Structure prediction request, 196 residues.
Amino acid sequence: LLVVHHSFATYDGFLIGGAIFEQLGRLPVGLGDDRIFQLGRLGEWARAIGLVPASPDAGEQALRAGQLVAVAPGGMWEALRPRGERRTSRWGERRGFARLALRAGAPIVVAACPAADDLFTVYPSRLTDAVYQRSHWPIPFVRGRGPTLIPRPVKLTGYYAPAIVPPVYDPAREDEQLDALVAEAKVRMAGLLQRK
Prediction:
């Protein structure tokens, strides 16, 4: 299970997937936000490049079929981080990725492209926060190069942390096991995001 940082640009995650394909010949299946699949052509395009609507069942089926699965626990909320939160994660209490790995017995590989947070400046906005909290639709105030939406010219390098191997799933200790996996993944992600 590939656990990635969600920048505003988003395409850095696809670059990480492309690098995995080049090195291993395997293309990760990405678990995408349901909103993507509600947008006609964008949803069609997302499916064409290997994204599927995010759900525990979809992730578990793909993992049990031997596929690499990519997920961004922070999702769009993480992508909307304002400039003061660059190079940080916004996972909150999300544990679904850890539950998926634990139940499927899949190692977790944390990956990030820290410089992707420098491609755009996302401005703090109460409107962005309010709309997202109510509807989960992103309404960002953002700029790239100069006053445009063109990304800044930034060298992107993807980093991977060593795999976190989950323990044998014990339903009686699930909360404890999940807490440990999430805590370790957060520590590793924080370390990757500090790389230059």
